[in-house]
Amino acid sequence: MFKDKYNVIGVMSGTSLDGVDLVYTTLSFSNKWSYKVHYSETIPYTEYWHSTLSKSVHLEKVALLKLDEEYTNELAKIISDFINKNNITAIDAICSHGHTVLHEPQNNYTLQIGNLNKIATLLNETVVCDFRVQDVQFGGQGAPLVPIGDRLLFSEYDYCLNLGGFSNISFEEDKKRIAFDISPVNTVLNLYANKLNLAYDDRGQIAKKGNINLPLLKELDNLIFYSKKHPKSLGIEFVNMEVLPLINQYKIKTEDILRTFTEHVAIQISNVIKKEKSSLLITGGGAYHDFLIDRIKHFLPNTNIIIPDKIILEFKEALVFALLGVLKLRNENNTLCSVTGAKQDHSSGNIFIP
What we know:
The strands form two sheets. Strands 1, 2, 3, 4, 5, 6 and 12 form a seven-stranded mixed beta sheet that branches. A five-stranded mixed beta sheet has the order 9-8-7-10-11. The radius of gyration is 19 Å and the shape is globular. β10 (279-283), α11 and β11 form a beta-alpha-beta unit. α5 crosses α12 (310-329) and α10 (254-272) crosses α11. The protein is of the alpha/beta class. The model has no long low-confidence stretch (mean pLDDT 96). The two termini are 16 Å apart. It has 13 helices and twelve strands.
């Protein structure tokens, strides 16, 4: 499907469990890619889905299959409601990431639910989805996938940083796109905010009042993952198996945990920004954490940090998955081996036609 313009819906559900992000966008190609976002919305997860998805990593195979069916139905309903609400009629494809339940590339396995063939039938539209599995089969990490979008849509920035459930970064180095996950962010910060009966630490106000626990900070910074070379990626398993047990050894106030972990995130980000006087685009929900942004600025005083408008800040990943889907429709590479460590660049994802 080669055209100059594509009207597509991009759909993303991240590990921070904020909800489902949707964008309706026109992607145009004339020597280079450009975009225009017409509609965007985040549909928050109900208490049932937030709880169910947060526990899904522990499910056995049969229960996972049942959850996949149920979540596919739910995702189709969310997308259908978005289409109807905005009276969207021109759709070339719906490009959906699904929701990551298990991500174990070291075991040649990754699972994103909500990508069953039936979603195309339920929506009566062409659906492009399940973008990670093929890369893992090719020996890659299956993540991150957004860097191809950083290269094609946001090339004016030296670094593109996303602060979501995890932080990840991408940049050009020796004419190759390099990208990797840096550290957990909202997967940890939100968990401890929950212990204070809050969904999240609004703008980092609680973390700002806490005190840094230096022994904990040192142990966090010394986790083996941070010394590994890219390509590398993180999943919720890393948080559950390595980060939380470490933090919970320390019997300290929740605000001190938030303060210490915020410092840890800022330090790890500053460790990977090597270029002097560079420009850094920050997107994702973590960009609203004013205190975290202040700490990043503290460690990177010579870096020009850009926080974009709300649409790009909140919906950049959904926009990029729209692009990944279009590239798949064109049978063009949408996954970079320099990023994931796969044996080759490739065009990843499944195309389902109703």
